Amino acid sequence: MNKATSSSAAGSCTLVGAGPGDPELLTLKAVKAIQAATVLLVDDLVSESILASYARPDARIVHVGKRGGCKSTPQAFIERLMITAVREGETVVRLKGGDPFIFGRGGEEVEHLREAGIECTVVNGITAGLAAVTSLGVPLTHRDHAQGVVFVTGHARTGAGAAEDPTDWRALAATAHSARLTLVIYMGVAGAGHIERELLHGLPGDTPVAVVQHASLPNQRQVATTLDRLQAGIAEAGIASPAVIVVGDVLRGLAAAVLPADGNRFGT
Ligand code: SAH
């Protein structure tokens, strides 16, 4: 049995991070787990080329994301499917974009399987925020610009009023400003206007911002702007989900050559 896979009474279950998209950013453990899988439950943001390259031809592949079927498969259904397959003796791999424990509901899945008596092994993946920033040639931390990083979801805002938004963006902005932290916002494109307005309460309008779509993939696109033009910059560049928004002074050194000149408002 593969070392990256833990066994239960019957089959086994491994939660695997598929990374941001580029198959070469998979870990060796991820590749081994995918190659060993007899059943793969696959999220939306996982590249088809990963399955084409590494899944066994006879593996049962179930797409459980929004783009695989008509609607997103309910979480409870996915978990039931995993439990049943493990009990039937299958080598189950749950393949998630990026890292399974960064906004992937991986924690919930591990908990629910544990309640059913099944221990899951987790294989890390490169999270989208990390790949996005690296693709721009800038670091997430820098001794002169950023002492740390915050990964935060912007999703809670979508469709909800500001009052229902559980993220205290103003507090976050004030902390990011005083403690010099880079903000990496996942699922934030739809709520960009709200996020921009709230962050401006604690961060200067000329704080550099980059928005990166399809990080690490051949169709990657990005725009560089400033916080006071976050929403406008996204609209002008036509950037949509999946994208991460990066906010912070680490982007100041971003070479103009890396980004399209028309989208690059901040200098060096
Ligand atoms: N577990 C994943 C995140 C899942 S949440 C990870 O660690 O990366 C889904 C969000 O991740 C998207 O809305 C987007 O904000 C981000 N995302 C995932 N893949 C991406 C990519 N290739 N480029 C940019 N953002 C991406």
Write the layout of secondary structure elements.
Layout: E1 6-7, E2 12-17, H1 28-36, E3 39-42, H2 48-54, E4 60-63, H3 75-87, E5 91-96, H4 106-115, E6 120-123, H5 128-135, E7 148-153, H6 169-179, E8 181-186, H7 192-199, E9 208-213, E10 221-226, H8 230-237, E11 243-247
Parallel strand pairs: 2-5, 2-6, 3-4, 3-5, 7-8
Antiparallel strand pairs: 1-2, 8-11, 9-10, 9-11
The chain binds S-adenosyl-L-homocysteine.
The site of S-adenosyl-L-homocysteine (SAH) has 25 residues, from helix 5, strand 9 and strand 11.
Quickly list its features.
alpha/beta, six-stranded mixed beta sheet, binds S-adenosyl-L-homocysteine, 8 helices, Methyltransferase, Cobalt-precorrin-4 Transmethylase, Domain 2, Cobalt-precorrin-4 Transmethylase, domain 1, five-stranded mixed beta sheet, 268 residues, 2 domains
Short structural description:
With 268 residues, the protein is an alpha/beta fold. The protein is built from eight helices and eleven strands. It starts with 5 loop residues before the first strand and ends in a 21-residue tail after the last strand.
Helix and strand content put the structural class at: alpha/beta
Query: How many helices?
Result: 8
Mean pLDDT: 88
Radius of gyration: 20 Å
